[in-house]
Fold this protein.
Amino acid sequence: MRIGELATKTGVSVRALRYYEEQGLLAATRSSGGQRHYLDDAVDRVYLIQMLYAAGLSSRTILDLLPCVDAKVNTPQSRAMLRAERDRIDRQITQLRQARERLDEVIALSESPANGCTRSDTDAARA
Amino acid sequence: MRIGELATKTGVSVRALRYYEEQGLLAATRSSGGQRHYLDDAVDRVYLIQMLYAAGLSSRTILDLLPCVDAKVNTPQSRAMLRAERDRIDRQITQLRQARERLDEVIALSESPANGCTRSDTDAARA
DNA sequence: CTCGCCTCTCACGTCAACGTCAGGTTTTAC
DNA sequence: GTAAAACCTGACGTTGACGTGAGAGGCGAG
């Protein structure tokens, strides 16, 4: 498939796909006219890349991790890297949970009837 | 206290503190010579700001939320905003957990004895 | 009073992951 | 064969949360 189709299938922009290739994250063959062609599994690869981006990893880190995910590389170093990133994500989740708890406290306070919240207020906000 | 002390106490740079003030997140009184002075509770305020930044909120969103946290504002709109941000954090946590699971799978594979991992490899990586 | 450190206000630099526009080529549909 | 749609390669723009000087002024110790 060509880049436009991959873009619509994955919901990622054409520009982003070209950027992924530039970063070495996504390979493509070229037609005689120079257009990129992708295999079907490129869709999953793009999803994976997006997932890792969403987890706060940088292009560089993803580039380092992908060979491990592809199971092409399996060294003590690569496993250490994998664990390091997993731990980083764990710490980030912990931070997010703390922020969430803090927000929940504020929400509980602001919604407690003792604090000026009327039934109609709540209902209006829900609408 | 002055800005340098607040910076060392919170671990945040002086530049960042000035930026927070510029964004309306952190108030300070001024000495006759124009220097910023902070009360002790500014430390907690900075921690809170940092927590919300870490949760992926923008300066603008934090600016909107702080009056709610201070319980100075309590409208249906403000409560809706609080819930919206909490839900956004929840979704982000979910995404992070998915990424973490994915990484865990890869780690499990790379560490399975069937995949070329020897005991010494693991021990070396742990050191 | 002066030395040294802290602080002040501009104001430009940075970095990542793209967005966007320009100008030209390839592919597809008819 | 031709027009439209999709694609190509640069290359500059964007955004947020600061970093990093430059040059000038404030402030406590001796």
About this structure: The radius of gyration of chain B is 22 Å. Residues 75-127 of chain B form one domain.
